[in-house]
Amino acid sequence: MLVHLDLSHEAEREDPREFEELVLSAGGDPLVLIGGHRSAPSPRYFVGSGKMEEIRQQVQLLDAEIVLFNHALSPSQERNLEAEFQCRVLDRTGLILDIFAQRARTHEGKLQVELAQLRHMSTRLVRGWTHLERQKGGIGLRGPGETQLETDRRLLRVRIQSITRRLDRVRKQRDQGRRARGRADIPTVSLVGYTNAGKSTLFNALTQSEVYAADQLFATLDPTLRRITVPDLGLIVLADTVGFIRHLPHKLIEAFRATLEEAAQSDLLIHIIDCADSERDNNIEQVKLVLEEIGAHNIPVLEVYNKVDLLEREPEIDRDQTGAITRIWLSAQQQDGLPLAMEGLAELLGTDLVEGLLLLTPTQGRLRAAFYQRQVVLSESFDEGGLAHLDICIPRNDFYRLASAEGLQPEQLLAQLTPRAETGAKTRAQARTEARGHSSPVEQ
Length: 444
Fold this sequence. Notes:
Number of strands: 15
Helix content: 40-55%
Number of helices: 16
Structural class: alpha/beta
Radius of gyration: 28 Å
Shape: elongated
């Protein structure tokens, strides 16, 4: 049985369509959605007496096993409603926690879900053991000095502290990984967005991976990182993260901080947006609120409008008056427009580049192959003396590392470089425009 009320306060309103998707995603079988309007929730039952009687009759008529509220209920409201309906009552937070518990695959993910569940459960122990809560005084009537309720609270505290310590170790391990990538000058890009916007589908398309992706809410729970090579840029680390949702419970944000820090410490965020969703603008605002809450609101963002095939429009890049990218339109499912995403990554991350014609002798074949391996060669020609003229565009740090790997001083290799302006060679934009008619590195 699903219950959804339209409250007068705009900030407390939820989406009934999204609520049904959450229930289906959790494996529930919705019998009926009972709606209503109310200016403010009732402190005792959340719903009014008339609506409560309607729900009770429907529960008995349809033999419902659980009543799900599309709102956050207080512990006392849950207990009062269960006493009235004689069945389980669960609020929106409990439903999301149940979905997360089903989807957790890694050890870290299971720890984070358990921590969120324990924190949620700790507020709902009161009156769970009322028959054991009081202790009598007098000879022969003194108990062990601790009620069952106090025992449960203590065990919960101990378990929460244990999980928190283990997640702290996970956080330190992630910090070490980020520092190692920082020393290697490998930028990190995180995919963020509303749940079911297509983040994992785009991640699989760009990385040639097989991360679980499905048309359901919270299909991804455990973060996945992969290295990919971006033309004109080099290696980057792409991270797939858990999806956001409106009114994401604070317990989840606290428990998943180790995961969400991956986004907060990124060099660039790719905000995946379902452009065909009727709630698109509201979803964008909700994602921005969560990013602000985890401290990631100051990181550069590239907006990618996914599922353009549902709008029957072509993939394209939108730019402002200065020529800077504002958004990219593509279809991850159809793998249409992926080169545009690569172009956007290269443009936003490649700020310090080495560009121009590099003159290489026939004995420097290994160096030539290394440039091709990093996909930084725009074009190549040979002169009568057999010298190769490579038109390259590569991040300066990668250029220096490549020179050192070949036993050359970076300054020595730079001396073999002729700036593009002096040669009349093609610009990156011209080379990309011509390359669009051919197969892209992603398609290859």
